[in-house]
Specification:
By secondary structure, this protein is an alpha+beta fold. It contains six helices and seven strands. Helix 1 packs across helix 6. The longest helix is centred in the last third of the chain and has 25 residues. This is Class II aldolase/adducin N-terminal domain-containing protein. InterPro entries: Aldolase-II_Adducin_sf, Aldolase_II/adducin_N, Aldolase_II/adducin_N_sf.
Length: about 280
């Protein structure tokens, strides 16, 4: 591997390169994982925009947070995640850090606007949960997904499983049990017989991780069906999964991955959710 992170594959007598030659590591790559993936020019005058710098203006930050939270609900509505009154996304308020914003009760995700959001008191930073079809289908097995694809490396050493169903979550103890399943570092969790839960440093990250985990649960169900008919599945080994996760799990990369959806929502709705 060169200092730029490129890999040169060589083979003699027309034979394919060995498996060892294909291994990668982060040596020589930018320490900031976002710097490994963004596109721009070498002069640095064209650059990917990450989370804005609010220069200490907490009210400007609150406005931005609420706009992205409303967009996140619209995105869930597009994906068909609405199911009655079930599901929520919460994000901490920059002005009042002992409070959080969330969706109002019994309002469809697809119609939520900034002015509909409700201010409440938090115990976590940013979280997303709803009863998506593939997530709740895979959850009945009470087990994690396999690391089968590049996208699934988002969940390598980053996925808890709450191996219990204690009924609808009304008691504080059930919330504590879920928190224990997440542990001190995981940002995603499969809730047995229930669905998915994801966390994030931004609401954009939490929502992107949720849709990504939902997609991986769908893929896992399809893979298991094929495997049941005799096809052998090949799980990504730990070294390759760890290498990939070291970049794609970085919070700015997961934030950036939601921005195409955010911009599309602005275009599709003419910004109506910002009101």
């Amino acid at each position: 591997m060169s200092s730029t992170g490129t890999i040169t594959l060589t083979a003699s007598h027309g034979s394919p390169p060995s498996t060892a030659a294909l291994k990668q590591n982060v040596e020589g790559l930018a320490k900031n994982p976002l710097e490994r993936t963004w596109r721009g020019n070498k002069e640095g005058t064209v650059r990917l925009q990450s989370v804005p710098d609010f220069a200490g203006d907490k009210f400007a930050e609150r406005k931005w947070v609420k706009e992205h939270l409303a967009a996140a609900f619209r995105y869930w509505g597009k994906l068909g995640y609405g199911e009655g009154v079930s599901g929520h996304i919460t994000v901490i308020d920059p002005v009042l850090p002992d409070h959080y914003w969330m969706n109002p009760f019994a309002v469809h995700f697809s119609s939520i606007k900034v002015s509909d959001l409700v201010l409440a008191r938090p115990e976590i930073k940013a979280a997303a949960h709803c009863h998506s079809i593939h997530g709740k289908s895979w959850s009945v097995f009470g087990k994690p997904i396999n690391i089968l694809t590049q996208d699934s490396c988002l969940f390598y050493d980053n996925l808890g499983v709450y191996e219990n169903f204690g009924g609808i979550v009304l008691a504080p103890q059930e919330g504590k049990n879920i928190a224990e399943a997440l542990g001190p570092k995981f940002k995603t969790c499969i809730l047995q017989n229930h669905g998915l839960l994801t966390l994030g440093k931004t609401v954009d990250e939490a929502v992107y991780l949720f849709s990504a985990l939902e997609n991986q649960c769908r893929a896992q169900l399809m893979v298991e069906a094929a495997a049941a008919n005799g096809l052998k599945k090949r799980v990504i080994d730990n070294e390759d999964a760890r290498f990939t996760a070291s970049t794609i799990q970085f919070w700015e990369n997961t934030y950036i991955n939601f921005q195409p959806e955010y911009r599309l929502l602005l275009e599709e709705t003419n910004g109506s959710f910002l009101k």
